[in-house]
Amino acid sequence: MKILFGVSGGISVYKAANFVSSLVKEGHEVNVVMTENATKFVSPLTFEALTKNNCYTDTNMPVGKESLAHIILPQNSDVFVVCPATANTISKIALGIADNLLTTMAMARNCPLVLVPAMNNVMWQNPSLQDNVKKLLSQNVIFFGPTYGRLACESTGPGRMIETHEFLEMFNYYFYPKKDFLGKKILVTAGPTREPIDPVRYISNRSSGKMGYFLAQIASLRGAQVKLISGPTSLDTPYMVERINVETSEEMLRCVRENFETCDILIMAAAVSDFKVSEQFMNKIKKKDSFEIKLTSNPDILKEISKLKKNQLVVGFAAETENLNIYAKKKLEEKGLDYIVANKIHNSGFPFGSEDNEVLILSAEGDFFELSSTKKDIANFILDILSKKL
Ligand code: CTP
Fold it and tell me: Within this chain, do residues 245 and 360 fall inside the same structural domain, yes or no?
């Protein structure tokens, strides 16, 4: 994307340099315009080095061929981000004041405007500023933050500028180029389940949850309303994804059943434990030479849910150490699935915890795909297939 990045003057300018650097790393073309006050915190040279483009300021006004940059640049950009957006700059934009290059560009733009506020909490809550914020919101201006936290002035409250990872999550969510799942509800399960043995021990498996979390994240970026039913993992919840935490297979079954009727697609990427302890020990089992634990089988979530299927697409996963194709086909048929994504599990433990995966994808209609790539790319590929079926 072509991003015009406006920087107004506040201590958070140093964070804005990180944001710009991240956008450039993600492949965006970034042009920066700074107010005079912003240049007192960080030199324009910083942004020139990060973007490999001229940094525009009031004292470095474009001349000659570029003298119309205040109009051409905003009109040739896909989005105008102002970060940090001070109370002064927010209010000027709301009131249509164009008394410096940044606010002039804001007025001349015909692309979406994102404001990333940063200021003292009392300034943020000031009624005049809040009126201006409301006015801008009514004009579809997008606000990223501010958040609540400790501020540079040492008080605590709303006004803190978002962090780089939050900025990137929000930016990608709003401006993801493909929105082919808008209006669709996708239910994803991910991670392992845990079956308690006694109050300190459990049966589980090596699933990290990464594949399911990528599916949830990318489906959300592509416009879907996503619910993620997750077993215990150490992963962060993707932006705008509703996450429901469960532990046991039975809890997962209950949660999938409650949410299945209203979803358009169910993707069961969770590694559900097939067994549970027949009788859970109420106290910690003490050390002994040997003893036996009796296991009984858990319900098969996919088999149960497929019986309730109406128009939903149902996607299962399969983890196999041998006969990948044969076992995957059997599961596809026995569990009444539309698609199955089969993972070859290597003796080394691959792909558990890895960023990469090797999969076969089979459909009930006889389609066959073989893929070896990152889990992120595979998640996109699976969603490409599903999007064609909606
Ligand atoms: N699955 C399920 N309920 C279970 C076990 C698995 O819904 N009790 C789902 C998984 O989420 C996955 C698919 O079924 O989408 C296949 O899981 P997998 O562990 O590969 O196969 P199992 O059915 O458990 O069979 P086996 O362990 O014998 O290979």
Answer: yes
